[in-house]
Recover the amino acids of this structure.
């Protein structure tokens, strides 16, 4: 009886997975990229940013080959026009010591294929605030770095969804 239940549970799970796959369901962040993005060159001044590393990783996970040298004429080019984060003081104590900060991560990018712009420059910004305590300065600096990485990761997801939304027609024109 246990074997029968296990077989029914397995076949039910398989049926659910097959049904989800058949309807076009994809896990978050796994939307397929158009064939025109099989080879991509990332044009940026900052190859050390959290966003750059995250974008490279996401593109490779999607099956895209990264053309670091930019020598492949068939490669799409993702132009990173602005990749920056800014921290601003939101509140201060009566002793004029910061108690809350706002972290803004800005991204401006465009995409071109064979010299034709397929995504005009777009700007995206994400904002988070966090409290600050002088007594936990190292922990709060670490929190700021983690927040910046999380914002960069969220922006990578935005860009990947935008790339996945390119229609085959727009990607080949």
């Amino acid at each position: 009886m246990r074997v029968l239940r296990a077989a029914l549970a397995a076949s039910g799970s398989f049926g659910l997975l097959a049904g989800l796959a058949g309807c076009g369901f994809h896990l978050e962040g796994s939307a397929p990229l158009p064939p025109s993005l099989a080879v991509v060159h990332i044009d940026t001044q900052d190859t050390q940013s959290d966003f750059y590393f995250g974008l490279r990783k996401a593109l490779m996970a999607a099956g895209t080959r990264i053309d670091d040298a930019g020598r492949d004429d068939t490669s799409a080019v993702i132009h990173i026009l602005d990749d920056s984060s800014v921290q601003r003081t939101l509140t201060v104590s009566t002793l004029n010591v910061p108690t809350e900060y706002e972290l803004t991560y800005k991204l401006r990018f465009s995409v071109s294929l064979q010299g034709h712009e397929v995504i005009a420059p777009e700007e995206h910004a994400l904002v988070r605030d966090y409290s600050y305590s002088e007594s936990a300065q190292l922990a709060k600096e670490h929190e700021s770095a983690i927040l910046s990485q999380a914002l960069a990761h969220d922006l990578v997801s935005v860009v990947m969804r935008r790339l996945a939304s390119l229609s085959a027609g727009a990607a080949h024109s």
